[in-house]
Input
Amino acid sequence: MRGGRGRIGGQRGSLGRGLGAVLTVVVLGGLGFVAWSKLEWHRPTCELVHPLDALGLAGTIDVRLRDSGTGLSSSRVEIESGGTRTVLASAQYPAASWRRSDTLETTLSVPLRPLEHKIGEGPATVRLFADDYSWLRWFRGERPLLEQVVTVDLTPPTVEVLSQQHNLRLGGLDFFVYRASADAVRSGVAVGPYFFAGTAGLFADSAIRAGFFAVPQDLDARAVPKAVAEDAAGNRREMTFHAVVKPRRFAERTLELDDAFLARKVPEILAASGLAPEADLAAGYLLVNRTLRKASEERIREVTRTSAPAPLWDGPFLRQPNSAPLAGFGDRRSYRYQGKIIDAQTHLGFDLASLRQSPVVAASAGKVVFAGYLGIYGDTVILDHGLGIFSLYGHLSAVTVTVGQAVARGDTLGRTGETGLAAGDHLHFSIMLYGVHVDPIAWWDGKWIRDHVTAKLELFPRATVTAQQGG
Output
C-alpha cells in the first residue's frame, strides 16, 4: 500500500509540475504578447506635405503623421519666434481599445494666424511633437519629430498694370503689361477660376512683365480681370484694372445623329483611344462626347502648360487656304438622336471645309508640341507660338510633322480628314491660351495684333537677352 501511495504521490507531483510549466508558458506568453503590443520602440513618423521655407499671412503648416503600431495618442504644433513659443494646434486621439487607437495616420493643416498669435516677420522655428500609445512613451522624453527653420513674411508683393487699354469680347483675349516686385514668384491675371501667368524677361527692366489674359466663353461678360502677384510665403495681392469685356451671344445649333454615323464613328474612336467597345452605340457616343471630350481637353492642358517665353508668330495668322466655315467658335450644340436631345456641348474652334484631303498649313511660325491621336479631335497637330498662344489642327487624315519640329507660316502640317468625332472631311482649328480655347478671329486680323499686342510690346525698351518664363 505504501508503494501504491508513493506512486500516486509521484504522479500528482508530476502533474503539478506539468501544470506549473503550462501556467508559466501561458503567463510568459501573455506577458510577451502584452510587451509586443504595448512596448512599441519606434516613435511616430511625420513628413511635410509641401516644402516649408516661408510662411505668410494665410500660411499653413501641412504635415502627415503615421504610427502603424499602437496608433497616435497626441500631436502638437508649435512655433518659436522672437524668443516666444506659441502652440498653434494640439490634438488628442482617444484609444479604441487597450491595445491601440484607431488613428494610425492623419494629416494636419495648421494655419499660422500671425495677427492672432502676435507673430512678427523674421526667422522662426516650427516644431511638431507627436506620441503613440506605447508604454515606452513615459520613458522616452519629449523631443520634436520635426524641427524646421522658416521665414515669416507678412508683406504681399506689389503689382501695377502699365498698359492702359484692354478691350475684348467674351470668349476673347487681350495683352497686358505690368510691373511686379522682385519677391513675386507667381504673377499674372486671374479671371474667375482661371489664372493666366505673365512672362518675365521681355523688357530691359526686369520688373516689367507681360502676357495674355482671356475671359473664357464659359464665363459671364461681367467677370472682372484682376492683376495678381504672389510671393514664396503665399502672400497675395490683387488689383482690378481697366478692362472692357463686351458680351456676346453664341450660336445655338442642333446636330442630328443617326445609327449609320454612330456605327461608323463610335467603335473607331473607342478603339483608337484604347477604350473597351460599347454594344449600345448611343451609350458609346455619350462616352466619347462627354468622357473622352473631357480627357482630350485635359491632355491639351498638359501639352500647353509651358510655352516659349517670347513671340514666335510673324504677323497675322494664316487661315486655311480656300476654305469655308462650317461651324464657329463657341457654338452651343445640342445632339438629337431618335427624336430626343441626348447631350449638349460647346464647340471650341472653327470648322473649315475645303477639298477632301487638302493640305493643312501652319497658321504662323511656331514649334510642334503635339502630333498624334487626340480623342475627339482625331489625328491632331498642336503648335506653340510663344507667350502661351497655341494653335490646334484636328481631324487630320495625315500628319507630316513631328514633335519638336520648328515650322514657318504656311508650312504643311498634314492633310484634312474626318478622324475623331467628325461627320465629314474638314479641319477643326483652335487658338488656345495655355490650353484655354479662345476665339481665333482676332488672330486672323493683322490690325488687331498690331494694336493689342505689338504696340504694347513697344511701350518699353526690350531686353537684349533671351526671355525667361515668368510666374
User: Anything to note?
Assistant: DSSP finds six helices and 31 strands in the chain. The longest strand covers residues 122-132. The CA atoms of residues 261 and 423 lie 7 Å apart. The longest helix spans residues 2-38.
